[in-house]
Amino acid sequence: MLLELLNNTQQDVKDLGVKCIGVEIDGVDNHTISKEYLAYRKNMIESLYNQYQGYDIKHDDIIEGFYQLHEKVHVKRRKNLPASENLVKLLLKHEDLPSVNKIVDIYNILSVKTKLSLGAHDIDLLVI
């Protein structure tokens, strides 16, 4: 199913220079929360919070790249923050990130760390 999704990327999206890459994760217990996971999450969030102290998001090349892509498809800056920018702002404001479940939490942590956040979906719920 993932390969079919990637192969069906619209040409106008590809023409913008967007590269589509996918990862499918199977067999993860997304309901049980262990002490080890909670410790990992806490340590990662503390580390990222410290990393972003004094950070000026307005001069970040990766975030600016999202805005440039938004402009190409006529999406206004003020109404549509890149998800990674929004996550960094949440982290700095609350010294934490929202906790949804393990997969989403780890995805959000990686998004803050890399400033890349494009999409994560439950593949069983997608309709092609």
Plain-language structure description:
The protein is mainly α. The protein contains six helices and no strands.
Tally of contiguous helical segments: 6
First-to-last CA distance: 9 Å
| Strand proportion | under 5%
- Helix percent reads 40-55%
Q: What overall geometry do the principal axes of the alpha carbons give? A: flat
Structural class: mainly alpha
Question: Which stretches are poorly predicted, pLDDT < 50 over at least 5 residues?
Answer: none
Instruction: Estimate the mean pLDDT confidence.
Output: 86
Largest sheet: none
Query: In angstroms, what is the radius of gyration?
Result: 16 Å
Sequence of secondary-structure elements: HHHHHH
By DSSP, the count of extended strands is 0
Keywords:
mainly alpha, 6 helices, flat
Write a compact overview of the structure shown:
This protein is an all-alpha fold. It is built from six helices and no strands.
